[in-house]
Write a structure and sequence with these properties.
2 copies of one chain form a homodimer. By secondary structure, chain A is an alpha/beta fold. Chain A has a single domain (4-231), classed as HUPs (Rossmann fold, 3-Layer(aba) Sandwich). Helices cover 43% and strands 10% of the residues of chain A. Chain A has 10 helices and 5 strands. The first copy, chain A, has helices at residues 12-25, 43-55, 66-70, 85-91, 105-119, 142-156, 171-180, 184-187, 205-216, 227-231, and strands at 4-7, 30-36, 58-63, 124-126, 161-163. In chain A, strands 3-2-1-4-5 form a 5-stranded parallel beta sheet, with helices on both faces. The first copy, chain A, is globular and about 45 Å long. The first copy, chain A, starts with a strand and ends with a helix. The interface between A and B is large, with 37 and 37 residues.
Chain lengths: 232, 232
């Protein structure tokens, strides 16, 4: 009866979390949820679907048309995505937020996930956010999510727990965890590139961090193989 | 520079709050935001627009298509709305939630309002929620909103304040406040009925509480006059 819902972007981190949840709660108790928010990189929804198929868990996609109506950010609009690793590393040292910051995106994702979970008797919510590496995003941090958890518990009168297994891991730790949990088959289909390119652009923040993580973990990124999946 | 944003449903309470904000922050610093979330009572968006016109503040409508995709509640689906006052009053005494409960609705509204405000340098968010009367909704309560405020501050790195001027008022207090703030002209165009009917159905929870409030305050509901507005 301990059911779990993974917020699945179709990327490396949330895919690792999906396997974490399967390991923790059992495959039959785990499902995944993705959001179609008019992201520039819609290809990640294909990844999320494929990853869920490989993991053999139920998967649904909920639409959110509000972010594109809000506008003003690089993930839904035609604003250039910063492609310099230095910029990304500066984020944690300054108060400047990256131009991929969609205000409140993770708060919204988790709140809608909670609403979806509430209707299905699911109390465990899993998110792949991490406060290490390139997360200049304040809604990915531990204290934010701790307050959000309490807000959701009170606001829906339901005893949710938000799990963030990657919160304090760096990208190479995540690679090792994914390997240990048997997530590498699914990893081959994940999508990371901020520019939504396939093959990945290789120079955006997300691509650079992913490459760095695999390199540091001394593992070959399985993503290299199945490009034909994305080409079809 | 103290700019304020009122989450305006087009109903009696949020309209009163709009005038509260004008009084508190000045008309030139106040704007209003409504949500088109495929509510059954879309007529309230017409009310919100008209109320903002009368109050002479800028007004915008943001779409949210997620609630109807989530389904399962009387405010967006074709489920009968409970029309018995007793049911409503029982809510505060039991753990049962009304079938108009959209899980997390106010959390989502305020989070999107915060994202909108963030982009415009607005730090004050005003919501017409109240924990008195018929609010069986846990996301209308003071402690929920206090945690949400902290979540938004942390999650967007921005010093928001959520104001809830009606939190501990009953409906007749709200009527008196509206009168004192000069909101009665606008009040004539507000929409309350949960069944989305115009003239109001008169027997849903919202209609009954509104009528009770005006009766207790010894005031005539100005809504009676301008039915022709809604007929056009």
């Amino acid at each position: 009866m301990n059911k779990a819902l993974v917020v699945l972007s179709g990327g490396q981190d949330s895919t690792t979390c999906l396997y974490w949840a399967i390991n923790e709660f059992g495959r039959e108790n785990t499902s995944s949820l993705s959001f179609d928010y008019d992201q520039r990189h819609k290809i990640e929804l294909e990844s999320a679907k494929k990853v869920s198929e490989i993991a053999a868990v139920a998967h649904e996609i909920l639409p959110i048309n509000t972010f594109s109506a809000l506008g003003g950010n690089a993930l839904t609009d035609n604003i250039d995505v910063a492609d310099d690793l230095t910029v990304a590393e500066e984020i944690n040292n300054t108060s400047q937020l990256p131009n991929t910051f969609v205000p409140g995106r993770n708060l919204i994702f988790l709140t809608f996930a909670a609403a979806y979970a509430y209707q299905r008797g699911i109390k465990h919510l899993i998110s792949g956010v991490a406060q290490t590496d390139y997360s200049g995003y304040p809604d990915c941090r531990e204290n934010t999510l701790s307050f959000l958890e309490q807000t959701l518990r009170l606001g829906m009168k339901y005893n949710f727990t938000i799990h963030t297994p990657l919160m304090n891991l760096n990208k190479s730790d995540t690679v090792m965890m994914a390997e240990k949990l048997g997530a590498m088959d699914a990893m081959a289909y994940t999508h990371t590139c901020y520019n939504g390119e396939q093959p990945p652009c290789g120079h955006c923040q997300a691509c650079l961090f992913r490459a760095k993580g695999f390199a540091k973990a001394n593992r070959v990124d399985p993503l290299i193989e199945p490009f034909q999946f994305f080409k079809n």
